[in-house]
Design goal:
With 208 residues, this protein is mainly alpha-helical. The protein contains ten helices and no strands. α4 crosses α6. It is globular and about 50 Å long. The relative contact order is 0.17.
Length: 208
């Protein structure tokens, strides 16, 4: 496979070039802002670094439009999601740290089932947020419900990108970035607040 091959995946891009997707590129700043905001939270450093990697991967992809940058874009998002799946059972249900990491294969199996029904990583992440909102209570439920709602709208904008090209050449992918930055912030700060409130939160889990 030629990892430097050109990838034209979005409505805004018309040809190769570093500035072929100005809105898609600049809107990645939402991830950087989210990363900085999470970094300032107690127990937030690991999540902040992971969101920062999402910023780097997505920016590289929308500037360079190559296969390797596309893989980095998707890969860093996957790393964030899998890390969240790993720490969620420990933070919110007190599962022992070693067992908590079994959240990763559980989520991957769940994603495989969703994919077999025509979905994929993003749909399984959305369903995961909905499930979190259903099984938790109080402030955690409200925050996960809000994150699910924002991500649902975000995913609709990602899906609509090519559909609107005829009437709106810039497309809607940049809105996916803006709302995804908010989604990652909400998900990360919900976990960091929970980690900060737990007396037994460990550095390997909480990040501080």
């Amino acid at each position: 496979m030629n990892w430097t091959a050109y990838v034209d995946g979005y409505c805004e891009r018309l040809a190769p070039g570093l500035w072929g997707e100005p809105l898609n590129s600049l809107s990645n700043l939402a991830f950087l802002i989210a990363a900085i905001a999470v970094w300032r939270q107690p127990k937030g450093r690991v999540f902040a670094v992971l969101i920062g990697l999402v910023f780097l991967g997505s920016t590289a992809f929308h500037l360079l439009a190559t296969r390797w940058s596309a893989a980095a874009d998707t890969g860093f998002i996957l790393v964030f999601v899998l890390y969240y799946a790993a720490v969620f059972p420990h933070l919110f249900f007190g599962v022992r740290r070693g067992l908590s990491w079994l959240g990763i294969p559980v989520f991957l199996a769940f994603t495989a089932v969703v994919a077999s029904l025509g979905g994929g990583l993003y749909l399984s992440a959305l369903l995961g947020l909905v499930i979190f909102a259903v099984i938790l209570k109080g402030e955690h439920r409200r925050r996960f419900a809000l994150a699910a709602g924002v991500f649902g709208v975000s995913l609709s904008f990602r899906t609509a990108d090519h559909t609107v090209c005829g009437n709106f050449p810039a497309g809607t992918h940049f809105l996916w970035h803006l709302l995804n930055g908010l989604t990652l912030y909400l998900a990360a700060t919900t976990a960091t607040k929970r980690a900060a409130s737990r007396q037994d939160a460990a550095p390997s889990i909480s990040g501080d």
